[in-house]
Amino acid sequence: MRWQSTSLKILATASILSGAVENVAAAFNWNNTKYVYAFGDSYSFVQGTRGYANFSFIGDMEHLAFTPAQLLSNQIIPKNVHPLKALTGYLAHAEYFECSVQLTDLSTPQLEFLTGCGTGLPSRCTKQLWDFAFAGADISGKLLPLHHVWTVPLVDQVSQWSRFAANVIPHPDDQTLATWWIGINDTGDTLSNTTITDFEAFWHQEMDAYFEAVQTATQRGLHTHLFLNVPPGDRAPASNSNPTKAATQKAHILQYNRILTERIGRFKKANPSTTVLTFDAHAWFSKVLGSPQQYGFTNVTGFCTCANPTGYFWYNSGHPTERVHLLLAEAIGEALSKAAH
């Protein structure tokens, strides 16, 4: 399996053979999808009243546990609203009271646009968004240092969901989609990491941890998966003014994406009853960055961390603006609709 040349297409690789019904993946229909589970980093996370401010929907690495009641009462709120202001009476830990973290990305993520679940209780949304992504996440803290002591890497996001949420929130096969978008921080954090001498081997280590987590999620009942690859971070303001840095980052991203594609194929082969979908985020970002005016952008090299970044692709040095997330959601939604089988 390989990524489609156009990003406006999703691959559905369910094992459906003419005349055969055994080991056939559950039919996917985006219109019928009611539950969306998300794992990843800042490109996917939503803010929750019980989340770490500007980092998560619920909990953090030092506070992974929650009760069913806490999960089901947790609300999605705008990123510029501190959880303490939204959750009256919540006895948060000291870091919440003394939080000095700056709100660096206030744009609405594509998942809120995609599902239409952007505020309030997820359970009241037509498409319920249960988001365990954590801003700043890498795949595993055993392979790359955590950005902060409270950062929840992907493998721990899945563990958190499996331990505290999987038995609480429904996930019927024909109504559930799990989204996976990780690697943006990994391919960036390795730029100055001198301990890695063989990146081919390192990315395979990352994929071992990644797909062990995906396998855990599958065994716990998530059988329809959407994988997004890493967009061209080398074209973000954090790198695009430094040709050497940009070239290295580009090489890391292309290598990571190639190996990710291989591992998705291996996962599908080992799990023929799952439905596997892919979206080429790298191609989509490249297309928009290559023809910005067609999409309403006038500046794709700088950024505007401001209330109204009209015309800008980048909100800050590494995150796109809300308009990018909106357009991306439209592209993913269109592709998901076409992927119905």
TrEMBL record:
Organism: Panaeolus cyanescens
Hydrolase recorded as keyword: yes
Single GO term (MF): hydrolase activity, acting on ester bonds
Gene3D superfamilies registered for this protein in UniProt: SGNH hydrolase
Keywords: Hydrolase, Signal
Pfam families: Lipase_GDSL
Signal peptide start and end residues: 1-26
Protein name in UniProt: Carbohydrate esterase family 16 protein
Coiled coil keyword on record: no
InterPro entries (alphabetical): GDSL (IPR001087), GDSL_Est/Lipase (IPR051058), SGNH_hydro_sf (IPR036514)
